[in-house]
Every structure is written in C-alpha cells, then in structure tokens.
Amino acid sequence: MALSETQRRILTAAAQHPHGLAEPPEKLPAAACAAVGKALLKTDLVIAVHRPDYDARALWTIDGDSMLLRITDEGLRAIGLEPATGADTTAPAEAPQADPAPADAATQATPLAEDLALLDEALATPLPARRPTLRDAAQRVLDAWDDDANQRYDLAAAIEALRGVLVKPDREACAPTKPRKPREGTKQQQVLALLRRPGGATVTQIAEATGWAPHTVRGFFAGLKKRQGIAVSVLQRVRQVGPNKEGAKGSFTIYRIVE
C-alpha cells in the first residue's frame, strides 16, 4: 500500500526498535501525531499496547488516550520487510484493540493516503523568514569584515542589509482630523463658563466650583494658552487695605476670557 514519507519513517524506525515500538518524530506537532497514529492504527500497520508490558512511557495521544504503538506484520511488509518466523506481533490480551478496519478498506485507503500526503506537504513547507534584527544585521557585517580569506565578498550586501534595518519606511501622512468636540459637563467646561461671564471669576471662585487647589487653577490657565490657544486675561485687580481690611491676604484678581 502507498505510504506517506512520515509513515515510512515511523515504521522503519519501529522495525529497528528492540520491541518494535513506533515513536513519533520529535518535531511533529501534537495534532499531526494524533492524525498519523490514527491512520496507522486504522490500516493495521501498528497496534496499541499497554505501557506496563514495556519499559517505556506512552508516546502517542489519540482521541485523548495515551498509548504505545507497536509495528505489526502488515507494517513490516509495508516497508518491504518480512516478519520473523514465529515472531509475536499480536497485542497482549489485555491491550486495547484498534478499531476494526472497514469492510471496504480499498475505498478508505485512498482518501487516507491523500490526507497524509497533504500533512507531509504542510510539514515540509518552510516557515516564512523572520525579519532580521539589528543584532543579526550587525553580526553579519562583522562576519563579512573578518572574512579575509574570501576578500570580504559579502561586506557590501551585509552593509545594505544593516541599512535596511536602520532606515524606517516613511509613514504616510495622516489625514487631518476634525477637532474633537469637548465633552459636556466637565470641570474644564465649568471653568470656561465662569471665565466667559461678563464679570469674570477669581481663583477662589473657580477652586470652590471645581474642588481644585489654587495652584491647580493657575496651572489650568497656563495650559489653556499652550494647548488650546485660549488666553486668560486679567479683568481687574482688587487690593483690600486699610482699617477693618484683611491686608494683602484679602486682595484678589478677577480673570476673564475675551473671545
């Protein structure tokens, strides 16, 4: 019967194992291992055996069950080997048996072989090359520079590769976006409303309305000019001095935004 390359490698290695145990390739993904193992079982090329009967750990996980697989006489013949006379290739009495082969095995073999061929093709397809890092490009330049025996033939290409890593592609200019509409009911809106009143507002009044500290209010004034281009001007300075006055501590300044 036609075998995929993966099947042939597994069966060939199993034929050389002291107990005829089949082992999955090291780099074969878990899903691929389960598919290959199930295919070998269905075609009677291997049988499932109990782990306690052999000094080995379970290597295959098929349909959630961990098991060992051992090559059968059919598996040996499939790779061109004749079973040894009197060899015991049946599973132990207590071992779980593989699903019986369907009556029309020839009809099932062709799709199975096609699936395994596709699996082998997928495993053989190389992964996309990763983009070289700055360390990789710099190391290539150093290696080319030290390669006196070949007259540094790769130096020019290595430098170009390094330049390609260092130079970032130009980003397309972003389309200008519409200015974002300020949210309603925020403290910023409250402050702006107070400053736009005909009589303006003092730092103390704004601090009481927003719960900010006085220095936070003054910092907000500076930020309005820097971020939004809104200038806060002094409408009036009131200095309270004289009898029954608080002195300099009672003085205050009224601020206002003039549109």
Summarize the structure in words.
The protein has 259 residues and is an alpha+beta fold. The protein folds into 3 domains: 120 residues, no CATH class; 33 residues, no CATH class; 71 residues, Arc Repressor Mutant, subunit A (Orthogonal Bundle), CATH 1.10.10. Helices cover 42% and strands 12% of the residues. The strands form 2 sheets. Strands 1, 2, 3 and 4 form a 4-stranded antiparallel β-sheet that branches. Strands 5-7-6 form a 3-stranded antiparallel β-sheet. Strand 3 and strand 4 form a beta hairpin. The longest helix is centred in the middle third of the chain and has 20 residues. About 5% of the residues have low confidence.
Short characterization:
With 259 residues, this protein is of the alpha+beta class. 42% of the residues lie in helices and 12% in strands. It is built from nine helices and seven strands; from the N terminus they run H-E-H-E-E-E-H-H-H-H-H-E-H-H-E-E.
How would a crystallographer describe the biggest sheet? 4 strands, antiparallel
| Overall pLDDT metric | 75
State the separation between the terminal residues, measured CA to CA.
90 Å
Counting H and I runs of at least 4 residues, what is the number of helices? 9
Work out the strand percent.
5-15%
In terms of structural class, how would the helical and strand content be classed? alpha+beta
How much helicity do the residues have?
A: 40-55%
Number of strands: 7
| Low-confidence sequence ranges | 87-98
Topology pattern, helix = H, strand = E: HEHEEEHHHHHEHHEE
Question: What is the total number of structural domains?
Answer: 3
* Coarse shape: elongated
- Computed Rg: 41 Å
